[in-house]
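Predict the 3D structure for this chain.
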Amino acid sequence: MPGAHQELQPASSDQHQSRHHRVLILGGGSGGISVAARLRRADASLDIGLVEPSETHDYQPLWTLVGAGVFPQEASRRREADFVPTNVDWIRERVASIDPEGKVVTTSGGLRVTYDYLVVALGIQINWSSVPGLAEGIGSNGICSNYSYDHAAYTWECLQAFRGGTALFTMPSTAVKCGGAPQKIMYLADDYFRKVGVRDKSRVVFATPQKAIFAIDKYRKTLEKVIARKGIDVHFRHNLVELHAEAKEAVFENVDTHEKVTMAYDMVHVTPPMGPPDVIRSSALANEDGWVDVDKHSLRSGKFPEVFAIGDCAGLPTSKTGAAVRKQAPVLVEHLLAAMKGGASQASYDGYSSCPVVTGYGKLMLAEFDYNHQPAESFPFDQAKERYSMWLLKTQLLPRLYWHGMLRGRL
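Done. Predicted structure below.
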């Protein structure tokens, strides 16, 4: 049931409104809601504020399957109000600035919120305009992307309309959320093209600036076999720098030689460049790359000990996934609660992340690993093998665990 949270209407900037919270959480995605739920479970009386403008909450891992026609896009979206915990002051505005020296956050409506403790959970910023032609062309002329609720369904339209030719799939040179997603949709597309009888007159191409298909050797070897089996043409060290929508051409730069290469396509699935949210990059919280500078084991800032960060916006040397957030949340909360009591916690995040790599309809390899790029697997079998059981895990179990477990602070 929806929590009995307080709701704040947008504040007028000339009213100079202000308020204070014991704990202020920036962002109501998986990280922010998980932390809020765990804090509320630990202390029913704790004063918590949450800054989040969106009225809806998306389970983004489902978008790959939306793009492959397995689920309608609506299956990935629910009301944010259903997950904001009881008696949390929900401030429905954007974060405009963060001043950790003054312990104050300013919102888009001019509200000044001071805090004792701050949790930054603002996610990752998708920079559609970083590739000329992408922002203007997305959703038409065969240019699709599963990295948006509004555009994932168009990927499915592109697969259905494809009659042969070149199907191009790209990966950017930046950090991305769910690093396996750019290739998951490619494997599903290959399956679909075979099912409808157009694969024999098609070329499936994956262009990536990376040097290998996957960073962890155990899982890389499996995916190399998948690529060979499917006959996919991989271009390593190629970064998308421009799209010519009308001509259906993609321009890549070789990251080693800086040579420009133009590829023609009939459809292209683009994974857009991503980076730290501008509001973090411009604040004193940012490290040299623009992410929130925190200790990789405690998720706590060294420079501002009352500040914590979770999820994609945190400067952690691990993959940016929802699975990582699930492991980070209990560690962060333990350290935060200990700090509020003047103590310390021994809880430690080991860099765990997970990537359920869909390799076709009904096939999935579950990659799990830590900071050391060592497998950190949950099941007593070889997870480097493609399995139907892991497909069921992704399509049936994980969404339920997300909505009813993780976002409720239970998982």
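The longest strand covers residues 18-26.
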